[in-house]
Design the sequence.
């Protein structure tokens, strides 16, 4: 796959459609969160989407806080929030808290999950956790060139079917796949593509009874709450932020993604 | 309603007591088992075609028993060599533009506008010249050093350096990533202090911040090189001069690394007590760096940011220099007065009053130490024919002129050696001090980071001077 | 709010030394009560390391503040005294947990430092600590941490029907109400302290090994047994290596992570995908073999020896 042939075929590669807005974030229509493990080229994806040139290092904790940028596509303005690169959303480090809180309480319209194609299994840890929290996500299968070099092929259609979200193979460094990514983000944000995200199925040892019971109670109390299983597990882990949100019933006010744009 | 929510939380707590605390482990275990199931069906690995694993090969080489450290030193030496030699020409160009061309124009412009002499002195000879020196001495090496460094970083080499050095740092109770912040410090200590954010553990991060000043920064390389060339290169046979002075500079840098380890160890045993904690670092795959992108981002992110801060601090310093050499009490300038009174004490530690005054004035930016030293030497030893007048910093075109000036100012080989040591061991520049304060948000640690190295510098210079006088 | 009043009054004690003595005495009394031991002047003197006349002063101070009552030479906590003691115990155990998980302070210093800090920690700081640690239930020694309202669980076990299959446990409590159930349970020869292993646990039945005998219980009955899970290691020493022993390019399966790896560090390992069943290779050893780099799920992770020592593995034959 070369850059040129890809761009020619791509309907989104049209200067009239895509305007990179850099840090001009006024009047945006949608908020997009950018999540991913460290070392997956997340910043490169961020830079190609916004036209900014953020340089970030090779290790977690280097970008403290979050960077923001914007782009415009099909008359709609998107604000992108680059979350800190994390391996998980469950630990107690500041980085993970920032990322988790933004996806859960910030209610982004779309969350892009950037993964390293040659280390998919490991990156799916974060992916599955994100899908437990939010219903609207796009998977960016980045560094596909590197995977190819290591003779790794990924069936992206099957992956998309399994995860229930769009999966876009990309090489962000060369801008390959970025137009398709933008298109996918647009179709998820506008509701053209209805995600049916993968939810964890396996029973966790010893706790199924407790999770079921809490889930039931949460559903009765907060009928609109989409991710009751995840909330129940957070309560069982003693997560203070989620506990407070349940206590103040803030958790019930998070509009489930499907109904927001209906 | 409230009762119901409280009831849910109460129930959750009761369950927590039943379940115990291994839930987190179980959750991750189940996520990974589902991830593995998905990956199994969508990922195909063609191991047949896999010919040669370059990543593995490079890794064995750069972390190998016999190859790891030599490659590390070699790469570091190449980076320094490229920086020092590559910066010469643009530095000279910038200096001739800003100092030799624009400065006289500004001066005559001020005259034309009937500026009083003191105003043009303060603004043009003071503030402007200090800025001009900082830019011409600091910009070129940073513009070379930072991109080179960023290339190594983007390629994925730096985490391997941390991997190689971790054992040394573990023994002194510090973190392996301190090797990275130390290397950043070779470029600029303020950047090194910021880079310490990559260390999670607060104790070890503080150690990395406090000891970063022991990395000889770009602003101090010119001092090292000049003094080494004149006094150490001058003390040996001309054939060996170049090699000897380069070796002297490298040994000062290595001495700095040694001090950073010693001080880390001392801190771990005293005020920052604790054992070395964990070190879990992902060694990312090697990736071909992109040169243009790297050049652009490291220029914008690092070079300009660091330069801007130095500039902000340099202008006031320039004014101070001009003032001390022009304000007189009973016909003696403040500078002369100070130098005369401090000289006897400075001699105890093998330095002189001029150096001390220069370091006090040059707190904002190490780059202006050498120009200040030359100007003050010319002023206080009343040597005619050098420089452009009181309070006007200058650098000399020829090394022999500089040497003559310094020697007539009473400098010896001991002064040279001790100046090199003192340049390594003195307080961080004000930019770095400010950065330390911003990063630690603690006055106490900022003061410790400031005064610890200077105390060490005084003690070490004292002993060197005493031994020197016993032996020579 | 009598409790507030007490706290305020104790806080008003002028000298820090006195306050520390008062708090330490309360803690010791609480500890005795928890272990159902009688507390006498002697044991208190021994524990606090004070002279008898100083102890008498402390006791009279406690009594005058109605934190304890003296009866027949035995010292008992009052309601207020217990409240206050629980608070000090909570803060102490939270600090121990914090020191164990978030700092590199060595294990034998946790208690000493917590002992100092418990006297100067405000309630706000205690709540912040607790939230930051994910509201922990036990301190690093396994002792329960009382919650904010002073509740403490004296038995940190699970009911038998909630224990997973293949788990090892020790019975710590057999509910003696209703009588019929109790009789049935004891008829099996079950007793507190007995070690068991769960064979099967479904909606209909719980099958387990108790002292080598197989027992079968309905879940309703099993709910009346409280057990404490124990590490397999305690009973059977299974054969596993630790990761440090894995030579370059050898391959192994992760068996588990030792409980001595806690908090952030443990979570980091799990995030890297080091969980039971993970395949792991040793790829690089630095000069002294510390740190070493391991390949886990396609990524190269560098760990120090003190970490790899705590990861249990089973070596596999290289494929």
Sequence:
């Amino acid at each position: 796959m070369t850059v040129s042939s890809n761009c020619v075929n791509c309907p989104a590669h049209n200067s009239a459609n895509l305007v990179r807005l850099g840090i001009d974030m006024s009047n945006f229509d949608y908020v997009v969160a950018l999540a991913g493990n460290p070392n997956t080229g997340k910043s490169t994806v961020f830079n190609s989407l916004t036209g900014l040139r953020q340089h970030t290092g090779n290790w977690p904790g280097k970008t403290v806080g979050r960077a923001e940028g914007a782009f415009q596509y099909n008359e709609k303005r998107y604000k992108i929030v680059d979350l800190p690169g994390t391996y998980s959303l469950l630990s107690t480090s500041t980085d993970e808290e920032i990322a988790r809180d933004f996806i859960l309480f910030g209610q982004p319209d779309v969350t892009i999950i950037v993964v390293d194609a040659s280390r998919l299994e490991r990156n799916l840890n974060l992916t599955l956790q994100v899908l437990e929290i939010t219903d609207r996500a796009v998977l960016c299968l980045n560094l596909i060139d590197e995977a190819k070099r290591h003779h790794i092929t990924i069936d992206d259609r099957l992956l998309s079917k399994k995860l229930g979200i769009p999966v876009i193979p990309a090489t962000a460094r060369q801008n390959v796949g970025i137009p398709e990514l933008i298109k996918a983000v647009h179709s998820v944000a506008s509701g053209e593509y209805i995600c049916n995200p993968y939810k964890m199925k396996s029973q966790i040892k010893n706790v199924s009874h407790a999770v079921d019971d809490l889930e039931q109670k949460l559903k009765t109390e907060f009928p609109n709450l989409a991710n009751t299983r995840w909330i129940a597990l957070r309560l069982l882990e003693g997560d203070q932020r989620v506990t407070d949100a349940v206590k103040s019933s803030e958790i019930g006010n998070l509009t489930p993604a499907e109904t927001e744009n209906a | 309603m409230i009762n119901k929510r409280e009831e849910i939380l109460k129930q959750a707590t009761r369950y927590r007591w039943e379940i115990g605390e291994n839930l987190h482990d179980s959750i991750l275990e189940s996520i990974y088992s589902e991830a593995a199931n998905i990956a199994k069906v969508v990922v195909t690995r063609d191991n047949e075609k896999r010919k040669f694993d370059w990543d593995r090969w490079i890794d064995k080489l750069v972390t190998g028993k016999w190859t790891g450290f030599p490659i590390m030193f070699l790469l570091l030496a190449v980076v320094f060599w490229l920086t020092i030699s590559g910066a010469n020409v643009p530095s000279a160009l910038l200096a001739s533009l800003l100092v030799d061309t624009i400065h006289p124009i500004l001066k005559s412009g001020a005259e034309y506008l009937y500026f009083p002499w003191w105003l043009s002195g303060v603004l043009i000879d003071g503030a402007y010249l200090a800025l001009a020196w900082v830019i011409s001495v600091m910009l070129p090496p940073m513009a070379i050093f930072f991109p080179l460094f960023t290339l190594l970083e983007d390629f994925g080499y730096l985490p391997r350096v941390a991997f190689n050095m971790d054992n040394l740092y573990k023994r002194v109770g510090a973190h392996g990533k301190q090797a990275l912040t130390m290397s950043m410090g070779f470029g600029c200590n303020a950047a090194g202090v910021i880079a310490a954010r990559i260390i999670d553990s607060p104790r070890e991060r503080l150690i990395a911040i406090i000891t970063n000043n022991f990395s000889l920064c770009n602003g101090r390389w010119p001092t090292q090189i000049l003094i080494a060339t004149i006094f150490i290169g001058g003390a040996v046979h001309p054939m060996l001069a170049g090699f000897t002075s380069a070796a002297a500079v490298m040994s000062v840098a290595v001495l700095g690394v040694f001090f950073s380890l010693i001080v880390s160890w001392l801190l771990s045993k005293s005020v920052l007590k604790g054992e070395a904690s964990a070190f879990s670092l992902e060694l990312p795959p090697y990736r071909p760096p992109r040169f243009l992108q790297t050049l652009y981002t490291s220029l914008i992110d690092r070079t300009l940011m660091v330069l801007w801060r130095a500039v902000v601090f340099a202008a006031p310093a320039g004014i101070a220099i001009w003032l001390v050499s022009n304000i007189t009490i009973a016909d003696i300038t403040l500078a002369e007065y100070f130098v005369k009174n401090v000289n006897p004490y400075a001699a105890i530690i093998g330095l002189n009053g001029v150096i001390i005054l220069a370091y006090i004035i040059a707190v904002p930016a190490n780059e202006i130490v050498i120009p200040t030293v030359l100007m003050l030497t010319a002023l206080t030893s009343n040597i005619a024919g050098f420089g452009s007048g009181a309070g006007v910093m200058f650098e000399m075109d020829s090394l022999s002129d500089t040497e003559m000036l310094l020697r007539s100012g009473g400098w010896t080989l001991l002064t040279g050696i001790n100046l090199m040591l003192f340049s390594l061991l003195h307080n961080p520049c004000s930019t770095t001090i400010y950065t330390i304060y911003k990063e630690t948000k603690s006055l106490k640690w900022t003061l410790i980071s400031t005064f610890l190295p200077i105390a060490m510098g005084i003690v070490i210079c004292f002993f060197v001077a005493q031994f020197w006088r016993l032996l020579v | 709010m009598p409790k507030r009043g007490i706290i305020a009054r104790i806080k008003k004690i002028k000298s820090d030394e006195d306050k520390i003595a008062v708090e330490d005495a309360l803690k010791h009394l609480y500890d005795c009560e928890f272990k159902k031991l009688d507390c006498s002047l002697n044991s208190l003197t021994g524990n606090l390391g004070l002279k008898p006349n100083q102890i008498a002063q402390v006791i009279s101070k406690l009594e005058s503040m109605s934190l304890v009552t003296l009866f027949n030479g035995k010292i008992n906590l009052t309601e207020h005294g217990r409240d206050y003691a629980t608070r000090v115990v909570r803060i102490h155990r939270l600090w121990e947990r914090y020191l164990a998980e978030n700092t590199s302070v060595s294990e034998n210093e946790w208690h000493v430092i917590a002992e100092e800090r418990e006297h100067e920690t405000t309630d706000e700081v205690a709540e912040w600590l607790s939230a930051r640690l994910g509201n922990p239930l036990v301190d690093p020694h396994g002792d329960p941490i009382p919650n904010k309202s002073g509740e403490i669980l004296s038995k940190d076990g699970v009911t038998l029907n909630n224990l997973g299959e293949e788990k090892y446990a020790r019975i710590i409590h057999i509910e003696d109400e209703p009588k019929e159930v109790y009789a049935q349970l004891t008829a099996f020869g079950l007793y507190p302290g007995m070690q068991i292993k769960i064979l099967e646990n479904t909606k209909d039945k719980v099958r387990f090994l108790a002292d080598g005998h197989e027992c079968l219980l309905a879940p309703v009955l099993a709910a009346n047994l409280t057990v404490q899970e124990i590490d397999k290691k305690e009973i059977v020493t299974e054969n596993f290596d630790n990761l440090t022993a894995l030579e370059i390019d050898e391959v192994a399966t992760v068996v588990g992570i030792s409980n001595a790896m806690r908090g952030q560090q443990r979570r980091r390992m799990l995030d890297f995908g080091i969980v039971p069943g993970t395949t792991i290779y040793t790829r690089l050893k630095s000069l002294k073999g510390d740190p070493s780099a391991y390949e886990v799920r396609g990524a190269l992770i560098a760990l120090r020896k003190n970490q790899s020592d705590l990861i249990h593995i089973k070596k596999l034959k290289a494929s």
Q: What stands out?
A: Chain B touches chain A through 62 residues (CB under 8 Å).
